[in-house]
Specification:
The protein is α+β, with helices and mostly antiparallel strands. Helix content is 38%, strand content 13%. The chain has 4 helices and 4 strands; from the N terminus they run E-H-E-H-E-E-H-H. The radius of gyration is 14 Å and the shape is globular. 23% of the residues are buried. The model has no long low-confidence stretch (mean pLDDT 89). This is DCC family thiol-disulfide oxidoreductase YuxK. InterPro entries: DCC1-like, DCC_oxidoreductase. It comes from Neobacillus ginsengisoli.
């Protein structure tokens, strides 16, 4: 099963989230690609996805998930208590996404951003698509 997480590579919060996922995904279920990178462009073309992107995107089993649905689907597959966050899937998506959008719209202001995408450490490099 292919699972790819597309994330904002210049967002500090997004980069911290990727590192959080990597530490709780020892079996390497997830691969990663920056929204700013070439791999994301290829994937968007492959899946005919051209919506404005202000979200984490999960590609799983040839399907695209965005916003809170993507985040919670990731949590289900991680080790540790973070799995429990998946209980929030019982809340209607429009409510979850309302709060997700607040964080997404303010992420640069609250957490800052980098000048360029992060470079993964060597032990995680093979999990990143270019």
């Amino acid at each position: 099963m292919e699972r790819i997480i597309l994330f904002d590579g210049i967002c500090n919060f997004c980069n911290q989230s990727v590192q959080f996922i990597l530490k709780r995904d020892p079996n390497g279920r997830f691969k990663f690609a920056s929204l700013q990178g070439e791999a994301a462009k290829i994937l968007f073309k492959k899946y005919d996805y051209d919506k404005e992107i202000n979200s984490i995107i999960l590609i799983e089993n040839e399907r695209i998930f965005i916003k809170s649905e993507a985040a919670l689907r990731v949590c289900i597959n991680l080790k540790g208590p973070v799995k429990l966050l998946s209980i929030f899937r019982i809340i209607p998506r429009f409510i979850r996404d309302f709060f997700y959008d607040i964080v997404a719209e303010n992420r640069y202001k609250w957490f800052g951003k980098k000048e360029s995408c992060m470079l993964p450490p060597p032990e995680w490099k093979k999990r990143f698509l270019d």
